[in-house]
Every structure is written in C-alpha cells, then in structure tokens.
Amino acid sequence: MGKIEERDAMICHACGNEERASEGYPCRNCGRFICIMCDMRGVILCRDCQAKQPNPAPAPVAPKPTQ
Length: 67
Known about the structure:
The protein has 67 residues and is α+β, with helices and mostly antiparallel strands. It has helices at residues 36-40, 47-52, and strands spanning 9-11, 18-20, 24-26, 33-35. The longest helix has 6 residues, at 47-52. 18% of the residues are buried.
C-alpha cells in the first residue's frame, strides 16, 4: 500500500499565505479561511468582502505576501 500523507493547510483569503487550516477563522461575511496571523492583526474580512464594502472602514488589511 502507498503511504498516506495528510495535509492540513489552506490559503488565507486575506493575505494569500498558506497556513494550517486548524489555526484560522472564517471571514465574517462569506466564511472563507483567514489565517490566525491576519486575525491577530484584526482582519475580519477576506479581500473580496473588504473590496465590496460600500464605505471601507479603516480596519486593518492584511499585507500582500512577499515571495
């Protein structure tokens, strides 16, 4: 039998980084994954939901990933 490799990672929809899925929270509007680092910065909406806001609040926005 082949070796089973499990992976617990998701892409954060606020900053774009790949983080452990068990260490994150859903976007308040749509439920997409937001990593714990963005959550600790106060980010509560994914990029798409933040862009759809009629009057964007001065809430923190996750920085774009640097590669």
